[in-house]
Design a protein that fits this description.
Rossmann fold; seven-stranded mixed beta sheet; alpha/beta
Length: about 220
């Protein structure tokens, strides 16, 4: 039987190897295009004064960007010790450490220990988790206002890219795999939890969405 704990352990080990690369890539190139789209989506609703929770926060530059431009505090959760070490270093460089709280572990397991935040962010996280309903349930339960997502579009190019990556991971002996989840199923599940899609845009590979509560104005 597949073990999510085993998958989480494999993911943490894999991403730890790339922590330094992610930090330097941000220093050289800034936010990725899909992340800039996510920020624009949040700007539509306003994040000034908001509390943030970023699931799979990596080295932290996305939520730290939002903190520099008006958000008040953030919690970052990640499976990788090295990713969080890089995030703390980047936060210190910007004088943001007093507004940040980093947690190591599987978000689904940690969610019940976290206070709700105004905005929950999952940038390229759903594709790293086998059970998207479990992940979305945990995320939406911690969000007071918005849930912001970026995950792969479903077409031949993403199927090819993710299939190739999974083959390479298998040949390398890693238990980590990526997952191409159906956007329609994701939207239907979030709707069943009381959320409505209020923003959507794409790049060639990525789909970015922002969901708000059904009774909230858009």
């Amino acid at each position: 039987m597949f073990s999510c704990c085993c998958h989480a352990h494999a993911a943490g080990g894999l991403f730890s190897r790339f922590a330094g690369y992610y930090r330097h890539r941000y220093r050289w190139f800034g936010l990725e295009s899909s992340q800039r789209q996510l920020v624009k989506g949040l700007e539509r609703f306003g994040y000034e004064g908001a509390s943030l929770l970023e699931v799979g926060c990596g080295v932290g530059y996305l939520h730290q960007t939002l903190l520099r431009h008006g958000a008040v505090r953030a919690v970052g959760v990640d499976l990788s010790t090295q990713m969080l070490e890089e995030a703390r270093a980047l936060a210190r460089d910007q004088g943001l450490e007093d507004r940040l709280d980093y947690r190591l572990g599987d978000f689904v397991q940690l969610a019940g220990t976290l206070e709700p935040s105004d905005i929950v962010i999952m940038d390229k996280v759903i594709c790293c988790y086998p059970d998207y309903e479990q992940l979305l349930s945990a995320a939406s339960s911690r969000a007071n206002r918005l849930v912001a997502l970026t995950y792969p579009r479903v077409h031949w190019l993403t199927r090819l890219a993710m299939g190739s990556l999974n083959l390479i991971l298998s040949l390398a002996g890693s238990d980590f795999r990526t997952y191409l989840h159906d956007p329609g199923a994701i939207g239907h599940y979030l709707a069943s939890q009381g959320w409505k899609k209020a923003y959507e845009t794409t790049t060639l590979m990525w789909l970015t969405q922002v969901y708000c509560l059904k009774n909230a104005p858009t």
